[in-house]
Amino acid sequence: MPSRTGSHSPAGFGKSLPERGLLLLMVLVLLQGSVLPLGAASSPDISHQENLGNNKATDEGHNFTKKAFPVLGIDYHHIQTPFEISLWVLLASLMKLGFHLIPRLSGIVPESCLLIVVGLLVGGLIKLAGEKVPPVLDSRLFFLCLLPPIILDAGYFLPIRPFMENLGTILMFAVVGTLWNAFFIGGLLYAVCQIQPANPSDLHGLELLPCLLFGAIISAVDPVAVLAVFEEIHINELLHILVFGESLLNDAVTVVLYHLFEEYAGVGAVTVMDGFLGVISFLVVALGGVLVGAIYGFLAAFTSRFTSHTRVIEPLFVFVYSYMAYLSAEMFHLSGIMALIACGAVMRPYVEANISHKSHTTIKYFLKMWSSVSETLIFIFLGVATVDGPHSWNWTFVTVTVILCLVARVIGVVGLTYVINKFRIVKLTTKDQFIVAYGGLRGAIAFSLGFLLKKEHFPMREMFLTAIITVIFFTVFVQGMTIKPLVELLAVKKKQEAKRSINEEIHTQFLDHLLTGIEDICGHYGHHHWKDKLNRFNKKYVKKCLIAGERSKEPQLIAFYHKMEMKQAIELVESGGGVKLPSAVPSTVSMQNIQPKKPPPPPKSVERALPQLPKGREEEIRKILRSNLQRTRQRLRSYNRHTLVADPFEDGFSDLLLKKQKMIELEKKIKEMNNYLTVPAAPPDSPTMCRARLASDPQAYSVKPVSDSVPTIQVDLASPQSPDSVNVMDEFRRAGQEEEDQGLMMKPRGPGGPNKPGEGDATRDQQKLMRCLSDPGPSADEDEDEPFLP
Amino acid sequence: MGALQSLPGQPEYIGLAEKTGFSFDQIGVLHKRFKQLSHNEETLRRDHFNEIPDLACNPIRAQIIEAFFDRRNYRQNAVGMVEEISFEEFLVVMSHFRPPSPHMTEEQRESVRREKLRFLFNMHDTDNDGTITLEEYRHVVEELLSRSGALGKETAKSIADAAMLEVASISMGHMEPDEFYEGITFEHFLKLLDGFEIESRMSIRFLNMDTTTLCK
User: DSSP letters of A736-781?
Assistant: First the structure.
């Protein structure tokens, strides 16, 4: 039955209804099929014993009677655990696949809800089959295996700038908001439980501390649920980072409150001293977690400095160091989530400067993959655990909890915003407050924390669990489903999809410096001043330590520009290899339009004007240049969407970049032949090209003032000018031949002249190339020989 | 602090408050800072600015200082540079960095935007011809990268070229191969930084408390 999975073809995006129905049917059968092994697995003891007994019998029997040699046998529990795990993961992934086949559904219902429903179904099926439901949402499994990938993904890709700008607000919501929620809910629940003298229910037995503990568990906004829902609604960056940041940072508060109340719930009283220790504990937990994460982050960054020869294991360092940061923090009862976030955020700028592009892609995709599977599994398990878990439904308790959660959240957000707006430049409007309040979803972390409670200390454990599950269901289903229409209704600002342009980047940097300057003139140390100080410290000391080679000096603007160039190269390839760079705005403006025409040269240099090339020669040159262009164009045309995955950091793009530069250069060459323009204005290129260009344009020296032309070339002016054209032809023919011979193998050409350290973009480009080329991937031959897949 | 304390030159402050939108406390604090910078003289000169130690490591220090002495920033429709400025002009330049008040109509917000972008434009357009030419833009990028040593020079040119190309593409759309794009006019500049949210980004928090004793 599990072998049916093989028959799912990847191209089965069933366009027609019967195909889709068939696929769904197969998925359902798979579900059924998966239940049986799981059911069998959950009662291993009995079957194991039987098997042992059987084996013994057969062993003994073996001595007396010769049986036929067993050609085929089944030994399930040899592979039981890994098999189950794989089956669950497969189920989760297939579910994810399946949802996107039903278009209307995935638009209305967020994925998290669907997954919970699937979990309920699976749990129900298992129960129907009469087997014991496996304890899937076991806290150890959850906290050690399922949660870290999601948090690492969030932390590594955390947008640092908006996070830091709004850090004060986020901390207020996370710390003060969660505290308020916990005490409000816990306190009022206790009060409600006490005011029922008429019907003596078991609620009376509920003391204050367990109530407060319950309040602490249920008050924390859950990052998994928030991520799952907010991913689909695309609201603006500010709101996203506020709610998401809050869900990440409230972990410290939750940990402290949980341990505090759990510790003393048995004793029954919490003194002021304990409260005071609790506050200290909070600071230790939060700052300690961040410190542990930062230490591991720096270690990872430092390690990545030396990985230039073993590129293949670079991603491993990122993952392992982060996971160890999490585990170390958990070991000391510090906040593991904050450690993970700190580790990811700290190591990212340095690691990304050191590792190869392939490793970067690997890290990105692995993180996304793991976090996606983890999230899916969590929601499915939530459904399964709901079916399974021991429930104790109490109308009063549950409804009061749900109502209190909502009320507490709203009051908390409104109150805090009133205070926060006094200190913010960009105030939070009512719409923003509504979204922040409404986006406070609870999720699996609350459930796992409740699951951790011991029955002996907390006789009300089942009631708690039921209430927690109800709140989770309510927030995920009701709030999750309605938030999207509400966002539309309230016309909340959505995420801007605009591409980051180079102008905006320039002006962002410019503004940073400008505002820092104005603050210095004003004389007060605002947060621009401190940010600037941190940046300078970073550049001066830290980067030198942690980033290998030349990249440590690369300013952010240049790094951004290089990234943009690469993206443009990919776009060029995708568009089929035209010479023109496609841009976001269709226009016919090219580099020529913006280059100022040089004033006519002063009359003195008339003698040194370029000798007119005989007409025939000119034609020849033009023909050769054009044919070269055509050849490159043809080769590029075979890169289309089907043969090349559009990924900025994939194999082979670096030589495309060089080709693109060459093509632009060649095009300019043709034009320059016509106009004898002397402004080179070309993107940096290899010394060979420079030599070719300069050799054919001696006028460049006469008119151009003392400026840095291509710095690394020593040009001998005494070289006769007449064979220029020949040089040009030779250069390009040779270049063309070299290309032909080596196919895609680009050996970085050594620099022609004296290579001043750190100067000239040619060297830097080559270094860039070397960084890409030094990582040929797992099997170099395979990659380089077959660039053009049919 | 506050209304109980009688500030010197109160009637003057009323005029300034109306012109620039600062509160009395803020004007008082800034006046103190002005006196500190100018060593209790009546006017500030460029060398007074050069004395501020924190400003020394700012890559665009020269442009910031020039902005204070640029008549175009005094909201008087005048042009040219001055040699020294009084407190009023100091305050007017500072008022460009006030955060937008939360309750503003759309057109008020738009005018604040234009004002701030005009300030930036004036900083780039050093020869005051109304356009930012390629040379001026190159200069801007070079200054930004001036702290990164020699390897910034060539790339600065490429970056400025690419940026200029982008502006031209956005503003002009279609150009013949032999047409020449003169430079970024103010209207193009507005269009370029349309989504930039300049009114909130280009603001600093002017404190009401006197912290000048803490800083140099």
Answer: HHHHHHHTT--PPPPPSS---TT--HHHHHHHHHHHHHT---S-HH
Q: Using 50, 70 and 90 to split pLDDT, how confident is the model at A644?
A: very low
Q: Is the pTM of this model over 0.90?
A: no
Contact assignment for A502 to B166 by CB distance below 8 Å: yes
Side chain identity at residue A88, one-letter code: W
Contacts with B150 from chain A: Cβ below 8 Å: 756, 758-759
How far is the CA of A287 from the CAs of A179, A257, A292, B138, in angstroms? 18, 16, 9, 44
Subunit contact A522:B36, Cβ cutoff 8 A? no
Q: State both tokens at A742.
A: 């080596």
Distance of CA B91 to the CA centre of its chain: 12
Nearest Cα of chain A lies from the Cα of B143 at a distance, in angstroms, of 10
Q: Would you state the pLDDT for residue A511?
A: 86
Asked if B56 has any chain A CB less than 8 Å from its own CB, the reply is no
A549 near B CB under 8 A: no
**Contacts with A516 from chain B: Cβ below 8 Å:** 58
pLDDT of residue A700: 40
The answer for residues whose C-beta is within 8 angstroms of residue A68's C-beta and 6 or more apart is none
From chain B, pick out residues whose CB is under 8 angstroms from the CB of A764: 151
Contact residues on chain A for B174, CB-CB shorter than 8 A: 587-589
B40 touches chain A (CB under 8 A): no
Contact A349, A764 (CB under 8 A): no
Per-residue exposure over A106-133, b if at least 16 CB sit within 10 Å of its own CB, e if not: eeebbbbbbbbbbbbbbbbbbbeeebeb
| Highest mean pLDDT (candidates A583-592, A692-701, B102-111) | B102-111
Instruction: Collect all residues of chain B within an 8 Å Cβ-Cβ radius of residue A756.
Output: 150
For residues A76-101, average pLDDT: 86
pLDDT in tens, A254-299: 888 888 888 777 676 677 888 888 889 889 998 999 999 999 999 9
Angle between helix axes A444-452 and A208-219 (nearest 10 degrees) is 150
CA dihedral over B85, B91, B92, B94, signed as positive or negative: positive
B131 within 8 A of B188, measured Cβ to Cβ: no
Amino acid at A467: A
- Partner-chain residue, chosen from B49, B59, B151, that has the shortest CB–CB distance to A513: B59
Q: What is the residue type of B207? A: L
Q: Do B147 and A425 touch (CB under 8 A)?
A: no
pLDDT, tens only, A431-462: 889 999 998 899 888 988 888 888 777 778 88
Which of A76, A102, A141, A86 has the alpha carbon at shortest distance from A23?
A: A102
